[in-house]
Amino acid sequence: MRTQSRIKRSGVPEWCGCCCRLVLRWSRTDSNPDKPNFGCLNYNTSGKRWCGLFVWADTKKDEPMEKPESYGDNHEVKMNFDWRLGRLEEDVRNKKLVNQLLELAMSILVVVMAILYCKA
User: Fold this and answer.
1) Where are the domains of the chain?
2) Given CB 3.0 to 4.6 Å as the disulfide criterion, which of 36, 40, 67, 88 pairs with 16?
3) Backbone torsions φ then ψ of 94, nearest 5 degrees
């Protein structure tokens, strides 16, 4: 039975090489039907680069875990984080600009309505 509750993740890292939290999924293959596994958030997502992190949820602590090539590359992780932070800052700036434009448009509309009301 599938459950979204947390599975004890002994030996499983909390973050992948893309600087994202791991996602719990269930295998849909014939060889491993409904077997739970943890993996990168970007796995099987079009347009996104996958770091390669994959581990079965029932992996024992003493079993060796393969790390993806980019997992230990701090420079790449920092670059990814900086890029994501830059995008968030850009989104905030854009939303502030849109809010200011809406306030200006509403102010102009109120002034025009007041002028039309006074003329009538």
Assistant:
1) 1-72, 74-120
2) 40
3) -65, -40
Residue type, 94: N
What's the pTM?
A: 0.40
pLDDT in tens, 19-73: 777 888 888 888 988 888 888 877 777 777 778 788 888 765 545 555 555 555 5
Whole-number Å distance between alpha carbons of 70 and 15: 12
Q: Tell me how far apart the alpha carbons of residues 51 and 18 are, in angstroms, rounded to a whole number.
A: 6
- For residue 51, give both structure tokens: 């770091």
What 3-state DSSP class applies to 104?
Answer: helix
Q: Cβ(39)–Cβ(51) under 8 Å?
A: no
3-state SS, residue 53 = coil
